[in-house]
Amino acid sequence: MSVQDIHHLAERVGHDLVQANMRMVTAESCTGGWVACAVTAVAGSSEWFERGFVTYTNTSKQEMLGVAAATLDQFGAVSEQTVGEMARGALQHSHAQVAVAISGIAGPDGGSAEKPVGTVWLAWASGEQLQTQKALFSGDREQVREQAVQTALQGIIDIIAADG
Fold first, then answer.
1. pLDDT(46) > 80
2. What domains are defined for the chain?
3. Which has the closest alpha carbon to 38: 65, 15, 83, 5?
4. Ranges of H-type helices in the chain
5. Is the peptide bond before 108 cis (omega within 30 degrees of 0)?
6. What's the order of all strands across the beta sheet hosting 24-28?
7. Cα(15)–Cα(61) distance, rounded to whole angstroms?
8. CB under 8 A, 24+ apart: contacts of 35-42
9. What gap in Å lies between CA 126 and CA 138, rounded to an integer?
């Protein structure tokens, strides 16, 4: 996947959001705002991109998105439960109708036997829908993050289609 491929996905996201009369919000941890950067590189994205949250620390996930301390304590930042709460919190703290949330271990260190480097959890929320996905990406830090961005954008396309 190249930067150009990500740009094409971001353009498709924008097209689909406009067609569905929806706006999106991002809640990113390991990608550090890369999804928001990708979509705002598309001309006219102010019509369909509402805002982005970069919540790298557990404290920021709690303060900005309302992730429960108990969730973080029990499951960790890189978990299905946390990204689900991040996506729901992003919707609650924005005027968007669709959200994507990402939390992962991009490396080169920070992994464990249970959650090796490359483990990324993603969630997409729209209305009552909440979809989650666990991925184990390979490659270096940049490659893991790039694959997470690609997956996040494709998931937005998919949840809009499911909503429609």
1. yes
2. 3-163 (3.90.950.20)
3. 5
4. 3-20, 34-40, 58-65, 69-75, 80-92, 141-163
5. yes
6. 49-54, 24-28, 98-104, 119-126, 129-136
7. 29
8. 35/100, 35/102, 35/149, 35/152, 35/153, 38/6, 38/7, 38/9, 38/10, 38/149, 38/153, 39/10, 39/13, 39/14, 39/153, 41/7, 41/10, 42/7, 42/10, 42/11, 42/14
9. 29
- By CB atoms closer than 10 A (0-12, 13-18, 19+), residue 164 is exposed
Per-residue pLDDT for 1 more than 90? no
pTM of model > 0.70:
yes
C-beta of residue 144 within 8 angstroms of C-beta of residue 104? yes
Phi, psi at 50, each rounded to 5° = -85, -50
* Three-state secondary structure call for residue 130: strand
- Residue 143 and residue 149: Cα distance in Å, rounded? 10
Does the pLDDT value for residue 72 go beyond 90? yes
Rounded CA separation 161/27 (Å): 21
End-to-end alpha carbon distance in the chain: 27
Q: What is the pLDDT of residues 74-125, one digit of tens each?
A: 999 999 999 999 999 999 999 999 999 999 999 999 999 999 999 999 999 9
The DSSP call for residue 115 is: S
